[in-house]
Amino acid sequence: MSRKKSITLSIFAAILIMASALFYLPYYVTKPGMAKELEPIVEVEGGYDEEGSFMLTTVRMGRANIYAYIIAKLSKYQEIFPVEDIRAEDESDEEYNIRQLHMMDNSKTAAIEVAYKKAGKPVEYAYKGVYVLRIMEGMPAEGKLMPGDLVFEVDGNEFKSSDDFIEYISSKKPGDTVELSYKRNGKTNSVKVPLKALDDGSDRPVVGIELVDDKAIDVEPEVTVQSDEIGGPSAGLMFSLEIYNQLTEEDLTKGYEIAGTGTMSPDGTVGRIGGIQQKVVAADKAGAEIFFAPSEKGAKGSNYEEAMIAAEDINTKMKIVPVDTFDEAVSYLENLKAKSS
């Protein structure tokens, strides 16, 4: 083979490799992420310090190219999911990220409420408006509103819930125009949007957005949770424990490195999450000594059972603790013997 032909083939192979790396398959790959200490992220004004630490655990996720797909197939703690299992139909990257961040905000708000009420502190809410999660393709809001916008007035009228907003829009007719006031990136704007009949036979007028209520929680002392780069609701339990620990004089960590996962409802219920085994691996690598896992009231195939399987497989010394509620997690820590120095 001539030198010129060899160089040409090498260049062609390099281009082919680069092209295949940039070509995404209709799958997502998840793998163990990290265990992140919460004290630098959560700050209660005048809060108490802690000897140990609470940590949230994460799963890394990304679209799969051919190489990532093959590696995941061969890896024990990497999982492959079809796109439709992760994202809604026709959901854009921006809309998916907005949805994940909003779920994190809801989880954070619930965690604050649960922790403050447990500490005997008053909690109040202020309604902000409706938060735009998605824009329906071919509907009036397309090109006028964006995911992440906060709509707070319609035709100059404030509303107290998303139900009020929907009721007002439904009182109009297809073809009518409404003026929506909204906030985007800290700036206030307004836009006129013609209503269109929903294509489901009901002839109901719609703007064409998927929305949820957006509320601000008001507590004293103030709390700041810097979670801008973290998506999803699974850090709720650990947020609530960190916040509560800063609110109360007794240090619940007692010198231990404590990780865990689980959604948090306003009533203190700890809910199931995805990627539990990958989070156990991440927590073990970070040196966690205790790991809280949703028990799901002892249901077969619960997060706790899955966590125990992974813990035994990787031969970790980390103790896996099942919890159904925030109170159960607090009670476990209150009864925990302090770590000897």
Count of structural domains: 2
Structural class computed from helices and strand pairing? alpha+beta
Instruction: Trace the largest sheet across and list its strands.
Output: 4-1-3-14-17-18
Please indicate the percent range of residues in DSSP E strands (runs of 2 or more): 25-35%
Shape: globular
Main sheet specs: 6 strands, mixed
Give the C-level CATH assignment of the largest domain: Alpha Beta
Low-confidence stretches: none
The CATH architecture name of the largest domain reads 2-Layer Sandwich
- Helical percentage: 25-40%
Oligomeric composition of the shown chains: single chain
What's the average pLDDT?
A: 90
- How many helices? 9
The span between the termini is 70 Å
Transmembrane segments: 7-29
Enzyme class: hydrolase
GO molecular function, one term: peptidase activity
Catalytic activity: Hydrolysis of proteins in presence of ATP
Structure description:
- The protein is α+β, with helices and mostly antiparallel strands and 341 residues long.
- The protein folds into 2 domains: 30-65 and 102-122 and 220-334, Ribosomal Protein S5, domain 2 (2-Layer Sandwich); 124-217, Roll (Pdz3 Domain).
- Helices cover 32% and strands 30% of the residues.
- The protein contains 9 helices and 18 strands.
- The protein has helices at residues 3-22, 66-74, 83-86, 93-118, 162-170, 236-247, 276-285, 303-313, 326-334, and strands at 27-37, 42-44, 53-63, 79-82, 123-135, 150-154, 157-158, 177-184, 187-194, 196-197, 205-206, 209-219, 223-225, 257-260, 263-264, 270-271, 290-294, 319-323.
- The protein has a 6-stranded mixed sheet, with helices on both faces. Strands 5, 6, 7, 8, 9 and 12 form a 6-stranded antiparallel sheet that branches. A two-stranded antiparallel ribbon has the order 2-13.
- α4 (93-118) packs parallel to α6 (236-247).
- The protein is globular, with a radius of gyration of 24 Å.
- The termini are far apart.
- The model has no long low-confidence stretch (mean pLDDT 90).
- The active site is at residues 234, 279.
- The chain crosses the membrane at residues 7-29.
